[in-house]
Amino acid sequence: MMKLVIAIIHNDDVHKLRNVLIENDFRVTKLATSGGFLRADNATLLMGVEEEKLPELLDHIRSICHTRNELVVSPVSEFFTAGPHMGLPLEVTVGGATIFVLDVDQFIKI
Ligand code: 2BA
Questions:
Q1: Would you say 7 and 44 are in contact if contact means Cβ atoms under 8 Å apart?
Q2: Confidence class for position 29, pLDDT limits 50, 70, 90
Q3: Which atom in ligand 1 lies closest to the alpha carbon of residue 40?
Q4: What pLDDT score was predicted for residue 79?
Q5: Residue nearest to atom 16 of ligand 1 (CA)
Q6: Dihedral sign of CA atoms 40, 4, 46, 106 in order
Q7: Dihedral Cα 101, 21, 14, 10, nearest 10 deg
Q8: Helix (H, G, I), strand (E, B) or coil at 46
Q9: 61 lines ligand 1 (CB under 6 A)
Q10: Which of 3, 67, 88, 98 is deepest in the core (most CB within 10 A)?
Q11: Residue 109 has what DSSP assignment?
Q12: How far does the centroid of ligand 1 lie from the alpha carbon of residue 34, in Å?
């Protein structure tokens, strides 16, 4: 069965990951996205993959995408625009990758 893997990753990892995926015969589409919390640019990769190749795909992502700590001075969020957190630097750990795996009902190329 085919799976659709949606991976949200750091912009700095896109180039390397895309190269490794292409070299290993994976198909990938990159979307330019941004996070809801940090409002920073990130990248979302869409990858259609046969179930047997899913572990290999996840290994490639794991080997390239690492967590990073980022300091945010004033995240744009209602929660932080007032109150004791206002203006205080906040450290957040941005994941190496946030991954959704979905079953594909049909895969059609026309
Ligand atoms: P952002 O929404 O910009 O979130 C960046 C990082 O900020 C998150 O890292 C998390 O550590 C922190 N964070 C997010 N919301 C927070 C909050 N309400 N309070 C405190 N800290 C918060 P990750 O969890 O690794 O997420 C990295 C990026 O992946 C996110 O960027 C977003 O673009 C995406 N993402 C993560 N989980 C998602 C989900 N369930 N659905 C859709 N996109 C998701």
A1: yes
A2: very high
A3: 3
A4: 59
A5: 37
A6: negative
A7: 30
A8: strand
A9: no
A10: 3
A11: -
A12: 10
What pLDDT digit, counting tens, does each position of 60-79 carry? Answer: 999 999 999 988 876 555 55
- CB of 42 closer than 6 A to ligand 1? yes
Residue to substitute in 6, 98, 99, 102 for testing ligand 1 pocket (most ligand atoms within 8 angstroms of CB): 98
9 - beta bridge partners? 43, 97
Query: What is the rounded CA–CA span in Å between residue 101 and residue 110?
Result: 24
Cβ 40 vs Cβ 72: under 8 Å = no
DSSP letter assigned to residue 79: G
92 lines ligand 1 (CB under 6 A): yes
Short-list 50, 55, 68, 69, CA closest to 99: 55
**CA nearest to 6, candidates 36, 66, 47:** 47
User: Rounded mean pLDDT of the chain?
Assistant: 91
Give the full edge-to-edge strand order of the sheet including 29-34.
29-34, 41-50, 2-10, 97-103
